[in-house]
């Protein structure tokens, strides 16, 4: 049976630290998120940036970032994903892309876990497809949140108990594994993530009428361990973005780059800062190629 | 002949099973302790029939009771063990879904009537559960207003793929999802004039090298976030989705000197797009498959749905 393609936000996916072996030789492996999504395959749509061959010419390994309203997926396509690698190498980022791929986990040392996606198919898409994906990711997140709320109410959490309240077996397994591994999950973080995703789709939250006046309530996706304060370079970049955002539609990428170079921030450092600011939720991309301060 | 004590029973897919555990004792009995048991059809069921909704029909269930409206019925002559036999088959439905049925006795069934059928059994065809009943069944005619009209019941119910996977298939259902990938053999294909199989490298698996007849089709992976099916679109549907005729596709392939161009164009139009499809879902070892009867690309008002969900979220907070 083909594995379902999960729609989930980067921020939930990157929170995952549990890998599950299906057992047996050809059994699929899974990444289990704190909300219990047991992910073997994902379908994500976001802004593809930083496409780079980190391998060699003979053995290419294409790496890229895919940003959604909550964070960034890392994708890697090598010689065993020829079609995806070929598509990636030809893309002109930044571009909206739809990716179907397999979940991967990399743990260079005990305690540190990095999730990534090994793409099967990549396609350049338009904003409509991206917006619909955000909606689907929100629906899916909402369902997991609701189920987790019920699960955490139970005195003793078992798959059988979950089956009694109508949870399918495959889903129940993920929830039990997640609670055993992550303990009691802070659901408010994910409720905030859901609201953030939904607001991203709504123009009334995107562009404040007057930049000087009340801005939409910033949703704080802040993880406790990750400081959301910008560092020095990031502060510079934030300032540039604020200055260049003259018409309220966001600062254009070319302008940011130019201004950054003149303030002696190199292109690489700039890209890193922008990704980090996106991750911290301090800026967002209202339309492709434009950055805006929250 | 044995006596089993302290066994226990469990239900599996709507059927009762007797299980022997560690506390179960099994002892021999005299061979004549019970009368001879004759199995097979024609034997009366033991016990009361189990009421089941159409959506819950599962292969292998027997002695079930269903309350449903007959949507269509026709008489067919079939051969059973070399003898001609009349079977009355058609479609019946309740509020939860539709199913094919076969009546092996003439109950004088008529379209539109509402019945209670007690003592039916469930078989399946390629994963689609179907209900059968014979002279062991009791038919009770009920008032017509007990169920919605035939028109309402004929509608194709919308289902999640995870539920279809659990059932093994279903007749005439509607699924909404995203076409996340095209499978091998989508686009402009050439078929064997003898057996209609798609040719590989100009040759048929059975009939060798033949002059293929052009056809269009799509085999795509449709994923709704709960599961995946292979959705198969025929020429007519493919032409409509592409907004291009078969002849235009052949011309385009000739000019490009490759049929890949048709496949690429299909991928452009279909992949990553939300779609609603209606058809029969069957299953085999490779998973679920839908033969699509009708399809439409979905236009979703993302903002309206997002606003509604956000309001729900803020309301409950």
How would you characterize the overall build of this protein?
The complex is a heterodimer of chains A (294) and B (317). Chain A has 294 residues and is of the alpha+beta class. Chain A is 40% helix and 25% strand. Chain A is built from 10 helices and 12 strands. In chain A, strands 1, 5, 6, 7, 8 and 9 form a 6-stranded mixed β-sheet that branches. In chain A, strands 2-3-4 form a 3-stranded antiparallel β-sheet. A 3-stranded antiparallel β-sheet of chain A has the order 10-12-11. In chain A, strand 6 and strand 7 form a beta hairpin. Chain B is of the alpha+beta class. Chain B has a 5-stranded mixed β-barrel. A 5-stranded mixed β-barrel of chain B has the order 12-16-17-19-18. In chain B, strands 1-4 form a two-stranded antiparallel ribbon. In chain B, a hairpin with a 2-residue loop joins strand 6 and strand 7. The radius of gyration of chain B is 25 Å and the shape is globular. At the A-B interface, strand 1, strand 9, helix 3 and helix 6 of A face helix 2, strand 12 and helix 6 of B.
| Residues in helix, % of chain A | 25-40%
User: How would a crystallographer describe the biggest sheet of chain B?
Assistant: 5 strands, mixed, barrel
User: Which radius of gyration of chain B do the C-alpha atoms yield?
Assistant: 25 Å
Helix fraction of chain B by DSSP (H/I, runs of at least 4): 10-25%
Evaluate the radius of gyration of chain A: 20 Å
Average pLDDT confidence of chain A is: 85
- Count the E strands of chain B: 19
What distinguishing features does this structure have?
heterodimer, A: 294 residues, alpha+beta, six-stranded mixed β-sheet, three-stranded antiparallel β-sheet, 10 helices, 12 strands, 25% strand, globular, B: 317 residues, five-stranded mixed beta barrel, five-stranded mixed β-barrel
Outline of the structure:
The complex is a heterodimer of chains A (294) and B (317). With 294 residues, chain A is an alpha+beta fold.
